[in-house]
Fold this protein.
Amino acid sequence: MNDKLYRIILFVAALIVPIVCGGVVYALATDAYDAFEHFGFLNFLTSSQWSYTAGNEQYGALPFITGTLMTALLALVFCIPFSLPVALFVGEYFRGTKVASVLSTVTDLLAGIPSIIYGLWGFFTLRPILMTLDISPQGSGVLTASLVLAIMIIPYVASLSAEFIKMVPNDLKEGAYSLGATRAEVIRKIIFPVAGSGMFSSYVLAIGRALGETMTVTMLIGNTNNIPDSIQSTGNSMASIIANQFGEADDLRLSSLIAIGLVLFLITALINIIGKIMIKRARIV
Amino acid sequence: MAALTAVPLLAILGEVLLRGYHQLSWAFFTEPTPTAYKAMKAIEAGEPIPGGIANGIVGTMIMLGMAVIVAVPLGILCGAFLAENSKNRFAQFVSYLTDLLQGTPSVIIGIITYIWVVVPMKGYSAIAGSVALCIMMVPLIVRSTEETLKILPASLKEAGLALGGNKARVMMRVQLPAAFGGIFTGILLAVSRVIGETAPLMFTALGCSLIRFSVDKPISAVPLLIWEFFNDPNLQELIWGASLFLLLFVLALNLTAKYLAKKWNQ
Amino acid sequence: MESVIPILEFKKTCVSYTKQTMAVKYVSAAIERNTITAIMGPSGCGKSTLLRAVNLMHSLYQNIRVDGEILLNGENILSMEPIDVRRRVGMVFQRPAPFPTMSIYDNVLSGFSLNGIKLSKAEKDTTVEHCLKSVALWDEVKDVLNKKGTFLSGGQQQRLCIARALAMKPDVLLMDEPTSALDPIATKHIEELLLDLQKEVTILIVTHNMGQAKRISSKSMFMYLGELVEYGDTETMFTNPIDERTKAYLTGKMG
């Protein structure tokens, strides 16, 4: 094998990635076109109709966009009180110890659990608890989905935040200690400001992950096509409506679902790009 | 507060374990799923539901196998490209896109595969399912290959070249073998990530109640079965055995990957 | 009859990283066959850069340009294929770099496998034994040839790397500070080894250790800021340096 062939092979292999990505956008856009043309782009995005009465089908993406955003944001809110302690634990307090590595492993394993299993657990265990505690009358809904989603994204937030916390230079911390600061003060005044932007970027990336989560949400959100008006109500996310209806949809409904898919793809891609840029900036500390 | 994170893990594990344990038997793994009718009859008679998840296991293995055969070489070659050309603009562009692909929701991959494979083939198939899984695995393998190669000391590559090797040989016989540990763990993690995915398989492999070995027809998979059981009131009992199997498999893969990573890193 | 063409010759060799800065400026020197020639100089003087130009290592990196000529047995290597050059010129680096996934046996033969040259089992065995003997490593490793080389000490690893380079029977052996990462005893062993090896191969060694240059080399080059300031017999240069800069370096006045 000579060098020229080698370089060509490597190049072709690398070419596959842009081709697939481009193909994704192209395929989504072309098949979504019908829906957009029929309903009008902006109208589709802001309409909350979803009915398939023959002859007058009306589809709109708003309920699902709202559902997705709500669950993702709530999930982040719920997950921070847990991931922050873990991150501090692993990155600062007990850094380098056996306990920290066990905790790290546990967190990583959490990330590995398939989403359908999270959904099952949420449905059969969490739901009854929520219903008995009267937090959520019917069990399913935005709240339930967000809670389980929160558990799912803990690993992402915790491990990335821990990394940024570890990156805070020792001299800064030692400087503060030598001036008489307590541990809590060092954390608040030195670590947070320095690692803050990195930690924030981990939140952004976690949201990106939560936005696209399908099975868990489908099993827990209640599957109603309305804009959720409180966290206890049911709804649907972009991913879950696709999961539910794609199999039996055709023509206009199919195109609408694909259009929703396109919107989901673009939102996720945007959030991920923003998150990656933030990480890059934060790393060049 | 931090210790509380361990709670969900144990809770989920425990739950699945408890509920699924009594279901495991040799028959469970070797028989295909029963029809709803049979299951209903068994429930009425107060007997354990016959059948198992063999069709799902076979399907998962087949689709995984096909996906791995394509994704591993492709991912390694692409990762090698990125590692060798890190300053190149095109390489950086590909790097961005790899991350993009990695972050794409699995439903979308399912839709894409539907458009690209199911529609032209006029039907659901194991091939479609494995294409979806392959697309999901490639970015992970690319990343781990690229990062492991980049961490290798430059002296290794230079020593190889100084002996007169051309770039291809130095990569094949010096760099890639040295990077093997990281690449292998990357592959394990990619497999464990993809084996539990349900959404992309819903519109590509579709599912099937028979144990099937042909690749151009619909085929089952373990997560698909779990989803079917969930939606069928008569088959609810089977959920837990299947979930236990899936969960243990995934955890085993993850722990193995972690163990190997540690072992190979000293 | 011995050939009168010098085995290696620099003719106005220049190496530049950017259009403005030249790391090596118009070096001209003829290296004698079967000698050890030391290249000395303070940090940044261009000695490593010059060395690495001889086996075209710079072709790996985009921005490096080499002008002038470097003649290997009369042929200008700058117009040759890098792979052909590297088969005739071996290199040993500062950090011992045995290939971690290959056994000691395979490491010695790695030059052949990397060049796609197939040898019979008998040829392989002979080569390995011969090369390891010539670096005085044979007795120490002959029973563990199929183990990976990473458990060896630094000095032994470096000798393995030398054996590996020698297996290709190069005309010239380039060494880039080969003992700076080793302890004094290992260094001593390698220096003795080199004195022996010069009968078979011409050695060009970059060193920042003046004592080493004095101990083993018969000829020395002194470089400063990219220029070849002085080149001559080691003995004479140390006792009676011609150039002021050489004198300053050798007496420690210059870092």
